[in-house]
Design brief:
Structural class: alpha/beta
Shape: globular
CATH class of the largest domain: Alpha Beta
Strand order of the largest sheet: 11-12-9-8-7-10-13
Number of strands: 13
CATH architecture of the largest domain: Alpha-Beta Horseshoe
Length: about 240
């Protein structure tokens, strides 16, 4: 799914995704919208600028990349190159320095050499992103990729996936550390473990607080204190204030 293709009917664009975003921003009763699964070629500067001043669209984007190698992007028949991706990330961070940015990436696509993978790794390592969703390529019948030669051995695919998942944890921890000491708005969910509930800030930092059933599905101000062993940012009962 690519939500940036909203408004295309029978191959012709009838409406813009930006138009939908602007309408949703005026919907009463819904406090948060997140933009996810939008490819960089469809994430326009106008959309980014609108989100930066929006009251309901939160500073968090999930933007598929798939590969940091232009050679592999072309083989995947993507509609963008990595330079455009970097430009979009820079635009977001310029307007919203605290914005969370998630990335989809696929490893082991047919023809991906060690050099191609290292290009991807280095590209992601240098980008100011917040976390990765890493997918190991698997063959699917009746797809052009399944007929491609230069198949990457499964063991190599798994090794590359492990490297990127480790990078993701590094990126996420750095992003969380940058948010420590700040006060954020948290939406607590029906996600309770060992007496603690969990939720997410507007920029997608996962937090943990002592369980209070009255706070579930409520937006609360909370002071982000420290990173726990489970990777969540903890907040104390005293720091959770009704919004």
């Amino acid at each position: 799914m690519n939500i940036g293709d909203y408004g295309i009917i029978d191959g012709t664009r009838k409406n813009r995704f930006l138009d939908l975003v602007q309408v949703l921003d005026n919907v009463e009763g819904i406090e948060r919208f997140r933009i996810s699964s939008i490819e960089p070629n469809l994430l326009s500067n106008e959309i980014i600028e609108f989100v930066a001043q929006s009251q309901r669209f939160v500073p968090h984007f999930h933007i598929p990349l798939q590969s940091g190698s232009n050679k592999i992007l072309r083989q995947m028949r993507r509609r963008y190159l990595r330079e455009l991706y970097a430009d979009r990330v820079q635009k977001i961070k310029t307007l919203m320095p605290h914005c969370g940015i998630g990335v989809d990436v696929i490893v082991g696509f047919p023809g991906e050499t060690e050099e191609d993978f290292l290009d991807t790794y280095q590209f992601l390592n240098e980008l100011p992103i917040s976390y990765l969703h890493v997918f190991t390529y698997s063959e699917r019948t009746n797809t052009p990729a399944a007929e491609m030669s230069e198949v990457v051995p499964m063991k190599v695919r798994q090794q590359r996936s492990k490297m990127l998942r480790t990078l993701s944890e590094k990126k996420k921890r750095k992003f969380y550390e940058e948010n420590l000491g700040s006060t954020a708005t948290v939406l607590f969910e029906e996600d309770v473990e060992e007496g603690r509930m969990h939720g997410f800030t507007e920029n997608y930092v996962r937090v943990s607080a002592p369980y209070d059933p009255l706070l579930i599905n409520e937006l609360q101000f909370a002071h982000l204190e420290e990173i726990a062993e489970n990777g969540c940012v903890t907040v104390s009962p005293a720091s959770v204030l009704a919004s």
